[in-house]
Amino acid sequence: MTNSKIALVLLATLCFFIAPSLAEAQVPPLTINCDPISGTYQVFITFTDPGVYAQFDVTVNGGLTAIVPSAGIAMVLTTLVTLPGPGGYLVCVQGVGGPGGVSPLACCQFSVPALFVRGDANVDGAINIADIVTQLALLFSGLPVLCLDAADSNDDGAINIADPIYLVWYVLGSGPAPPPPHILCGPDPTADALDCASFPLCP
Q1: Does the structural domain 116-203 have CATH classification 1.10.1330.10?
Q2: For a surface tag, which of 32, 48, 186, 189 has the fewest beta carbons within 10 Å of its beta carbon?
Q3: Distance (Å, whole) CA 130 – CA 132
Q4: pLDDT tens readout for residues 92-134
Q5: Residue 178 CA, distance from chain mean position
Q6: Is the bond into 181 cis (omega within 30 degrees of 0)?
């Protein structure tokens, strides 16, 4: 075999190994934007389709939540993801299939506050004498409640006798309404040590 033929064989072999790496290097990495919708347990996920994957797997804390089909190169894709409730979340998108193979994960991390209605201590959808009874049972009998924030009628960041007193005046029509979130579900606008493990009436 002549030197020129040997050189051609070596060059062809080199191209065989280098070509896939060059193709991969030309694929732009996925970048995503997460936009939680205030007052809900939903988030918009937006990313740009590089055009080399058949679909995109969307995961929430490692669990597959949605599959978004490819729309073509440079197309902006948006999907709405519903979260199971309050807490911290890691949302990732990964391209799968097609000439691109499998992409590295592109992720964003955020937390979603609990949604509740202040004053609805027993979580029955109404604010009345039953909530006052629930607050008193919480204070004096240790009755467990789903959402301490909801039982904090005056939003002072503590559960004490002032909460049922505040609610008594409101229920009798002689005092102000509980501070937000009131009537409609929403997050706690003030930071405190109380938590809200669950408030099933809020979506």
Answers
A1: yes
A2: 189
A3: 5
A4: 999 999 998 999 999 999 999 999 999 999 999 999 999 999 9
A5: 27
A6: yes
Looking at residue 24, its pLDDT comes to 47
User: Residues 39-69: pLDDT tens digits?
Assistant: 899 999 999 999 999 999 999 999 999 999 9
By the 10 Å C-beta count (0-12 exposed, 13-18 middle, 19+ buried), 41 is classed as: buried
Whole-angstrom Cα distance, residue 10 to residue 38?
Answer: 60
Conformational region of residue 123, where left means phi above 0, alpha means psi within -120 to 50, and beta covers everything else: left
The span from the CA of 9 to the CA of 88, in Å, is 55
Amino acid (one-letter) located at 103: S
Question: Which are the contacts of 30, defined by CB distance < 8 A and separation ≥ 6?
Answer: 47, 48, 50, 56, 93, 94, 95, 103, 104, 106
Q: In what order do the strands lie in the sheet containing 87-96? A: 63-69, 55-60, 87-96, 106-112
Give the pair of three-digit tokens for residue 194: 């109380």
Q: What is the pLDDT of residues 136-184, one digit of tens each?
A: 999 999 999 999 999 999 999 999 999 999 999 999 999 999 999 999 9
pLDDT band at 26, cuts 50/70/90?
low
Closest CA to 34 of 50, 42, 45: 45
Which amino acid is residue 174, in one-letter code?
S
Fold of 28-112: Immunoglobulin-like (2.60.40)
